[in-house]
Design brief:
Keywords: Cytoplasmic vesicle, Repeat. It comes from Grus americana (Whooping crane). It is found in: Cytoplasmic vesicle, Secretory vesicle, Acrosome. This is MORN repeat-containing protein 3. The longest helix has 9 residues, at about 15-20. The chain has a 15-stranded antiparallel beta sheet, with no helix packed on it. The chain has one helix at about 15-20, and strands spanning about 25-30, 35-45, 45-55, 60-65, 70-80, 85-95, 100-105, 115-120, 120-130, 135-140, 145-155, 160-165, 170-175, 180-190, 190-200. It is mainly beta and about 220 residues long. It has one helix and 15 strands, in the order αβββββββββββββββ. About 5% of the residues lie in helices and about 60% in strands. It has a domain at about 110-215: Histone H3 K4-specific methyltransferase SET7/9 N-terminal domain, CATH 2.20.110.10.
């Protein structure tokens, strides 16, 4: 019986090229069309694992964990100083779905910094904010603003402890005027005290006490 030989089916050459182009595991630096570059681990042609991304347009660098093409896990994000060109850390902490999520610290250009919890790229949860004027807020945040219970300490050591809403004093709270030796306790609404009582508090140790003590009722 004669043997019939059929020609072997040949696949298009681009199939082979495509297989070789698929990135999986640790790879050398890969360059995007826009000039961005990534060095690190891949899975199914997506950044996955440990890796470092450099954005050409801004010069920013992210180094840390990736999941399926997005920053996810622990990592740091830095940008170059426009004058010295040295890299300055902007954020270091946890990420989820390409946004800050979990505990992390952000360093702002004017010297301010935030240490605490994030959600979807916004300050949410517990955190501490160091302001440029020397004030410090420590407490609860919601959608990038102080909301809930928190304490604001001013540069002169005076402080407010109580409720916050949309970044303003709101609800029951206490304001300690330690420079005068007084304490105001009452209800606040949108940063304005609506009602309460003012009493002497540590007046003898105050650096600039009032001329006369508040008479007791």
């Amino acid at each position: 019986m004669p043997i019939v030989k059929y020609p072997r089916a040949t696949e298009p050459l681009w199939h082979e090229w495509d297989r070789k182009a698929q990135k999986c595991g640790l790879r050398h630096t890969a360059y995007a069309v826009n000039g961005d570059q990534y060095t690190g681990e891949w899975l199914d042609n997506l950044k996955h694992g440990k890796g470092t991304q450099v954005w050409k347009r801004t010069g920013a660098i992210y180094s840390g964990d990736w999941k399926f093409g997005k920053r996810d896990g622990y990592g740091s994000y830095s940008i170059p100083d426009p004058v010295t060109k040295e890299y300055k850390k902007v954020y270091t902490g946890w990420w989820k779905n390409d946004k800050k999520c979990g505990y992390g610290a952000t360093f702002y250009p004017d010297g301010e910094r935030y240490e605490g919890e994030w959600s979807s790229g916004l300050r949410s949860g517990w955190g501490r904010m160091y302001y440029r004027d020397g004030s410090i807020y420590e407490g609860q945040w919601l959608e990038d603003r102080p909301s809930g219970q928190g304490m604001l300490r001013l540069p002169n050591e005076n402080r407010y402890e109580g409720g916050w809403k949309d970044g303003k004093k709101h609800g029951p709270g206490k304001f300690f005027y330690l420079d005068k030796g007084q304490l105001f306790e009452g209800i606040w609404a949108a940063d304005i005290p609506k009602c309460g009582i003012l009493i002497d508090f540590g007046r003898d140790e105050a650096p600039a006490p009032t001329q006369y003590p508040i008479p007791k009722v």
